[in-house]
Design goal:
With 372 residues, the chain is mostly helical. 77% of the residues lie in helices and 1% in strands.
């Protein structure tokens, strides 16, 4: 490998806007600090949210570089773990803030629940819808591996079950044990996620192999050391921006006249996921639908079966009353989105109109969260 070292990108290259135009958005980091110093809460929130987009992309890039050297199974586990790191960081900071400041607990809990639901909806409707639309625009009909998708679809339905029961119990007034129910259900979901990873990467890995869609084996562009430095640096910066964002969201929502629910469900997941999951749309245009669906659906599964229950358990440790009772509107939106996506992908084929249907669902839900 020594003869290739001179072609490796450094950490500075990863931040270079001439290498990747998205890096121009990194200017939002100093702008965030400037407006924070000026005491302009609305602009501080806006630029901290924008800054997270390129930083999330850099985290994803570093993870992929490490995964290329780590082998298929460990690489897949790394991608699964860090795939939704932004959501984990934002939700963890909000829970930490709720634990430290009781007067902000209700807003922080709503922010956590809204951002988790928003990530599921964003991946399932917006990212997948754009992928099907762009793929269908370039190819009349596209096919994919139905077996791999059915497992992810079933996992999503299982997660929705864990959301529906607490919401139904709260609606009927039997809400005394919703917190305990949520915590035990979270343990079950995490166990199920662990088993699904074992199934995906060990016992039935052949069902999820998308290497046949790749024309040539991708070579790492960074050394392992540089990739780890980039991952740690990007994660620290995301954590910093997320902390600024979490502490300014309430006042920014009031200043703009926007519901906190709309910011949590629509805006945060969009800026947190846009850059990283744009890959799903690009590869769909190249007719690599298995890879596209693995990114879009897989991310929704990770949020629903791993991140959401993990945050409930973290809140339990921190003494914060975070449950899986996300509200009737949020739960209904998630349930219908999972059903629509499962029905659309049920025949193993996709076209551009099905992408438009998913996008239409997303627009309707975005309007409902804005108006409510």
């Amino acid at each position: 490998m020594a003869e290739h070292v001179e072609h490796h990108h450094s950490v500075l290259d990863a931040f270079n806007p001439l290498q990747n135009r998205l890096n121009w958005l990194l200017l939002a980091v100093p702008l965030t600090l400037y407006f924070q110093h000026q005491g302009d809460v609305e602009m501080t929130f806006l630029f901290s949210m924008i800054a997270i987009m390129p930083l999330a992309f850099l985290m994803g890039h570093a993870t992929e570089e490490i995964a290329l050297r780590a082998g298929e199974n460990l690489g897949g586990l790394l991608n699964a773990t860090f795939g939704n790191a932004v959501e984990i960081i934002i939700a963890s900071l909000a829970i930490w803030t709720a634990a430290q400041h009781a007067d902000q607990a209700d807003v922080m809990i709503q922010l956590v629940q809204a951002s988790l639901i928003g990530s599921i909806l964003g991946n399932l409707l917006l990212v997948l819808g754009l992928a099907l639309l762009w793929g269908g625009y370039n190819h009349r009909t596209q096919t994919f591996n139905q077996e791999a998708l059915s497992m992810n679809g079933s996992l999503l339905l299982l997660a929705v079950l864990a959301l529906i029961i607490p919401a139904a119990a709260a609606h009927t007034g039997a809400d005394s044990d919703i917190l305990n129910l949520s915590r035990y259900a979270s343990l079950v979901l995490l166990a199920m996620y662990g088993l699904s990873l074992f199934f995906q990467f060990k016992t039935h890995s052949h069902l999820f192999d998308v290497s046949s869609e790749t024309e040539e084996k991708e070579e790492p562009k960074m050394t392992t050391k540089d990739a780890w430095i980039l991952l740690i640096l990007a994660t620290v910066l995301v954590g910093w921006m997320a902390e600024v964002l979490v502490h300014s969201v309430d006042k920014a929502a009031a200043g703009w006249g926007l519901p906190t629910l709309f910011i949590g469900v629509i805006l945060l997941p969009f800026f947190g996921n846009a850059a990283e999951h744009f890959t799903a749309v690009l590869v769909a245009g190249k007719d690599k639908m298995d890879l596209s669906l693995a990114i879009a659906i897989g991310s929704s599964v990770q949020i629903a079966v791993f991140v959401a229950p993990l945050m409930v358990l973290f809140a339990w440790v921190m003494g914060v009353s975070l449950s899986l009772e996300f509200g009737i509107l949020e739960t209904a939106a998630t349930f219908m989105s999972v059903l629509v996506a499962n029905f659309i992908l049920n025949d193993g084929k996709t076209n551009w109109l099905e992408g438009v249907m998913l996008l239409a669902c997303y627009v309707i839900l975005a309007l409902s969260f804005f108006e409510v």
